[in-house]
Design brief:
Blueprint lengths: L1 H15 L5 H4 L3 H22 L21 E4 L10 H13 L4 E5 L8 H5 L2 H5 L6 E4 L2 H5 L4 H16 L3
Parallel strand pairs: 1-2, 2-3
Protein backbone atom coordinates (compact mmCIF):
# COMPACT_ATOMS: atom_id res chain seq x y z
CA UNK A 1 0.00 0.00 0.00
CA UNK A 2 2.88 2.36 0.73
CA UNK A 3 4.24 2.05 -2.81
CA UNK A 4 0.80 2.48 -4.31
CA UNK A 5 0.27 5.64 -2.24
CA UNK A 6 3.65 6.95 -3.38
CA UNK A 7 2.80 6.29 -7.04
CA UNK A 8 -0.53 8.11 -6.71
CA UNK A 9 1.18 11.02 -4.96
CA UNK A 10 3.82 11.27 -7.68
CA UNK A 11 1.14 11.02 -10.38
CA UNK A 12 -0.85 13.84 -8.73
CA UNK A 13 2.24 16.03 -8.46
CA UNK A 14 3.19 15.32 -12.09
CA UNK A 15 -0.40 16.04 -13.18
CA UNK A 16 -0.40 19.26 -11.14
CA UNK A 17 2.76 20.45 -12.92
CA UNK A 18 1.37 19.36 -16.31
CA UNK A 19 4.11 16.75 -16.73
CA UNK A 20 1.62 14.06 -17.68
CA UNK A 21 -1.56 14.57 -19.70
CA UNK A 22 -4.95 14.51 -17.96
CA UNK A 23 -6.18 11.61 -20.11
CA UNK A 24 -3.54 9.41 -18.40
CA UNK A 25 -4.89 10.20 -14.92
CA UNK A 26 -8.64 10.71 -15.20
CA UNK A 27 -10.87 7.78 -16.31
CA UNK A 28 -8.10 6.21 -18.36
CA UNK A 29 -7.50 2.60 -19.36
CA UNK A 30 -3.96 3.52 -20.40
CA UNK A 31 -3.24 5.05 -17.01
CA UNK A 32 -4.70 2.03 -15.24
CA UNK A 33 -2.61 -0.39 -17.31
CA UNK A 34 0.56 1.67 -16.79
CA UNK A 35 -0.14 1.73 -13.05
CA UNK A 36 -0.77 -2.03 -12.99
CA UNK A 37 2.46 -2.74 -14.89
CA UNK A 38 4.43 -0.35 -12.68
CA UNK A 39 3.11 -1.81 -9.42
CA UNK A 40 3.57 -5.39 -10.65
CA UNK A 41 7.15 -4.56 -11.60
CA UNK A 42 7.88 -3.00 -8.20
CA UNK A 43 6.38 -5.94 -6.28
CA UNK A 44 8.01 -8.49 -8.60
CA UNK A 45 11.41 -6.87 -8.14
CA UNK A 46 10.89 -6.72 -4.38
CA UNK A 47 9.98 -10.41 -4.23
CA UNK A 48 12.97 -11.36 -6.39
CA UNK A 49 15.30 -9.25 -4.25
CA UNK A 50 13.84 -10.77 -1.06
CA UNK A 51 14.77 -14.24 -2.28
CA UNK A 52 18.36 -13.21 -3.08
CA UNK A 53 19.73 -13.59 0.43
CA UNK A 54 23.49 -13.55 0.37
CA UNK A 55 26.36 -14.30 2.66
CA UNK A 56 28.49 -11.22 3.17
CA UNK A 57 31.90 -11.75 4.69
CA UNK A 58 33.45 -8.99 6.76
CA UNK A 59 36.93 -9.19 8.22
CA UNK A 60 37.13 -7.13 11.39
CA UNK A 61 40.53 -6.24 12.81
CA UNK A 62 40.89 -5.79 16.54
CA UNK A 63 43.80 -4.67 18.67
CA UNK A 64 42.94 -7.36 21.22
CA UNK A 65 44.80 -10.65 21.11
CA UNK A 66 42.56 -13.58 20.22
CA UNK A 67 43.45 -17.23 20.62
CA UNK A 68 42.05 -17.88 17.16
CA UNK A 69 39.90 -16.08 14.61
CA UNK A 70 36.22 -15.96 15.58
CA UNK A 71 33.34 -16.74 13.26
CA UNK A 72 30.36 -14.57 14.17
CA UNK A 73 27.07 -14.76 12.30
CA UNK A 74 24.79 -11.72 12.46
CA UNK A 75 21.12 -11.88 11.47
CA UNK A 76 18.52 -9.20 11.63
CA UNK A 77 14.92 -8.61 10.68
CA UNK A 78 13.87 -12.26 10.58
CA UNK A 79 10.18 -11.27 10.86
CA UNK A 80 9.18 -14.81 11.79
CA UNK A 81 5.47 -15.46 11.76
CA UNK A 82 2.79 -15.70 9.15
CA UNK A 83 5.09 -14.47 6.36
CA UNK A 84 8.40 -16.20 7.15
CA UNK A 85 7.29 -19.65 8.16
CA UNK A 86 9.04 -22.58 9.85
CA UNK A 87 10.37 -23.98 6.55
CA UNK A 88 12.21 -20.71 5.86
CA UNK A 89 13.58 -20.60 9.41
CA UNK A 90 14.84 -24.18 9.04
CA UNK A 91 16.65 -23.20 5.83
CA UNK A 92 18.26 -20.22 7.59
CA UNK A 93 19.32 -22.36 10.57
CA UNK A 94 20.96 -24.84 8.20
CA UNK A 95 22.84 -21.98 6.54
CA UNK A 96 23.96 -20.69 9.94
CA UNK A 97 25.12 -24.09 11.17
CA UNK A 98 27.10 -24.69 7.94
CA UNK A 99 29.20 -21.65 8.86
CA UNK A 100 30.19 -23.37 12.15
CA UNK A 101 29.96 -20.07 14.06
CA UNK A 102 31.46 -19.34 17.46
CA UNK A 103 28.64 -16.89 18.16
CA UNK A 104 25.30 -15.88 16.59
CA UNK A 105 23.85 -12.39 17.00
CA UNK A 106 20.24 -11.54 16.15
CA UNK A 107 19.71 -7.82 15.77
CA UNK A 108 16.01 -7.35 16.36
CA UNK A 109 12.67 -7.90 14.65
CA UNK A 110 12.68 -11.62 15.36
CA UNK A 111 8.90 -11.77 15.15
CA UNK A 112 6.50 -9.99 12.86
CA UNK A 113 3.65 -8.58 14.95
CA UNK A 114 2.58 -11.83 16.65
CA UNK A 115 4.26 -14.52 18.69
CA UNK A 116 1.41 -16.97 18.01
CA UNK A 117 2.89 -18.56 14.83
CA UNK A 118 6.23 -19.07 16.57
CA UNK A 119 4.55 -21.03 19.33
CA UNK A 120 2.15 -22.88 17.01
CA UNK A 121 4.80 -23.88 14.44
CA UNK A 122 7.49 -24.77 16.99
CA UNK A 123 9.90 -22.08 15.82
CA UNK A 124 11.19 -21.55 19.34
CA UNK A 125 12.48 -25.10 19.41
CA UNK A 126 13.95 -24.63 15.96
CA UNK A 127 15.94 -21.59 17.13
CA UNK A 128 17.49 -23.80 19.81
CA UNK A 129 18.98 -25.93 17.02
CA UNK A 130 21.53 -23.24 16.24
CA UNK A 131 24.88 -24.81 17.15
CA UNK A 132 26.38 -21.77 18.85
CA UNK A 133 25.59 -19.36 21.66
CA UNK A 134 22.88 -16.94 20.52
CA UNK A 135 22.47 -13.37 21.72
CA UNK A 136 19.47 -11.36 20.59
CA UNK A 137 17.99 -7.94 21.10
CA UNK A 138 14.42 -6.84 20.51
CA UNK A 139 13.30 -4.65 17.65
CA UNK A 140 10.26 -2.54 17.00
CA UNK A 141 8.19 -5.47 15.70
CA UNK A 142 8.37 -7.20 19.06
CA UNK A 143 6.75 -4.09 20.53
CA UNK A 144 4.07 -4.02 17.82
CA UNK A 145 2.94 -7.45 19.00
CA UNK A 146 1.02 -5.97 21.93
CA UNK A 147 -0.15 -2.68 23.33
CA UNK A 148 -0.40 -3.54 27.04
CA UNK A 149 2.78 -3.17 29.07
CA UNK A 150 2.45 -6.50 30.86
CA UNK A 151 1.96 -8.34 27.56
CA UNK A 152 5.04 -6.60 26.13
CA UNK A 153 7.10 -7.79 29.06
CA UNK A 154 5.79 -11.32 28.58
CA UNK A 155 6.77 -11.22 24.92
CA UNK A 156 10.22 -9.90 25.81
CA UNK A 157 10.78 -12.79 28.21
CA UNK A 158 9.54 -15.35 25.68
CA UNK A 159 11.75 -14.02 22.87
CA UNK A 160 14.75 -13.91 25.19
CA UNK A 161 14.02 -17.47 26.31
CA UNK A 162 13.55 -18.65 22.70
CA UNK A 163 16.79 -17.20 21.45
CA UNK A 164 19.26 -17.23 24.28
CA UNK A 165 18.33 -20.03 26.63
CA UNK A 166 19.06 -23.56 25.54
CA UNK A 167 17.64 -26.57 27.38
Amino acid sequence: MLYLTMVFLLADIAYGFHLIPSHWVCHSWIGSIVLLVLMSSIFGYGYWKYNQKARVSLDIVTAKKLERPLMIVLLSDLHLGYHNRASELKRWINMINKENPDLVLIGGDIIDRSIRPLVHDGMAEMLRQINAPVFACLGNHEYYASSKENQKNSIKRRIFTFCVMKP
